[in-house]
Amino acid sequence: MTAILRPLQPSDRAAWHPLWEAYQRFYEVAIPPETTDLTWNRFHDPDEPMHALGALDDDGRLVGIVHAIFHRSCWLPQWTCYLQDLYVENSQRGLGTGAALIDAVADLARANGAGRLYWMTHETNATARRLYDKIAERSGFIQYRKAL
């Protein structure tokens, strides 16, 4: 499969919503509908630093989503891009769709002058966790960075 990647449009809401719900089930969270509505509207507000991209399969069906947020950093003079949410349908996993969505966010970050792209995910780094568990509350997420 060769995914078609593009920014999500307001008309994509009905296709996006089931993927957004599946993502929440995966992380065992329930985001209130009014927050989901607000988030969706922010994706389409040019004054908001939030973006939503989608991956469509060969039939034009939305099979993956990614959300990105731009913010300032005390560590860099440029914008920083946080890839907050990434979800690909089970049937599409292992086909490169997730990597393609990450690359699309990296392209978006470069185009917007970001100096870093990062994201977090569950990890099992036992050596580092021993230290982190002593000095901080564990969130279950590890930060990743992609050179831009």
From TrEMBL:
Q: Which InterPro entries match?
A: Acyl_CoA_acyltransferase (IPR016181), Diverse_Substrate_AcTransf (IPR051016), GNAT_dom (IPR000182)
The record, for PROSITE patterns, names: GNAT (PS51186)
- Protein keywords: Acyltransferase, Transferase
Chain ranges of the N-acetyltransferase domain:
3-148
GO function terms (MF aspect): N-acetyltransferase activity
Q: Which PANTHER family match?
A: ACETYLTRANSFERASE, DIAMINE N-ACETYLTRANSFERASE
Q: What is this protein called?
A: GNAT family N-acetyltransferase
Which species does the entry assign this protein to? Rhizobium phaseoli
